[in-house]
Amino acid sequence: MSDEEHHFESKADADASKTFTQKAGTIRKNGYIVIKGRPCKVIEVSTSKTGKHGHAKCHFVAIDIFNGKKLEDIVPSSHNCDVPHVNRTDYQLIDTSEDGFVSLLTENGNTKDDLKLPTDENLLTQIKSGSEEGKDLVVSVMTAMGEEQICALKDIGPKN
């Protein structure tokens, strides 16, 4: 044995914790799936019959949960698919900044300042106008595969 010390740097990202596997045949409409490396919500599933070459196939039509793009994939129903861990968290909106970021209040009283304003025009307008009117707003933040984005807004009344 040599006395040399070996240091290995891992170049791999810990994607394993961002997704889990599930048989393609068990994924249903309104579930989630990873297509082309993007977390998506399934809007349509159709399954073909078993053909002369073996497996029944599942045809997934899904919408990327962050950019709204439509993606499709065909997978044999007995094969595994990656499914993203998707979480929704509500935060109280404190402020919006000129550079496109929001300041949010977390459950433990800290602030979260690293989240950008949503790209959805309707949601963006609601947040800006509600903030200007001095309303108490709660935003829902969706997190999946290392990305997060504001996806919904609730008005909980005027600020006191």
Q: What is the topology?
A:
Layout lengths: L18 E5 L8 E4 L2 E10 L9 E8 L5 E7 L3 E5 L1 E11 L4 E5 L5 E6 L4 H12 L2 E10 L2 E12 L2
Antiparallel strand pairs: 1-6, 2-3, 3-4, 4-5, 7-8, 7-10, 8-9, 10-11
How does this structure look, described?
- The protein is mainly β and 160 residues long.
- It has two domains: 15-84, Roll (SH3 type barrels); 86-158, Beta Barrel (OB fold (Dihydrolipoamide Acetyltransferase, E2P)), CATH 2.40.50.140.
- It contains one helix and eleven strands, in the order βββββββββαββ.
- The chain has one helix at 121-132, and strands at 19-23, 32-35, 38-47, 57-64, 70-76, 80-84, 86-96, 101-105, 111-116, 135-144, 147-158.
- Strands 9-8-7-10-11 form a five-stranded antiparallel beta sheet, with helices on one face. A four-stranded antiparallel beta sheet has the order 2-3-4-5, with no helix packed on it. A two-stranded antiparallel sheet has the order 1-6.
- The longest helix is centred in the C-terminal third of the chain and has 12 residues, at 121-132.
- The chain is elongated.
- The relative contact order is 0.17.
- Pfam families: eIF-5a (PF01287), IF5A-like_N (PF21485).
- This is Eukaryotic translation initiation factor 5A.
- GO terms for molecular function: ribosome binding; RNA binding; translation elongation factor activity; translation initiation factor activity.
- Belongs to the eIF-5A family.
- Residues 85-154 form the Translation initiation factor 5A C-terminal domain.
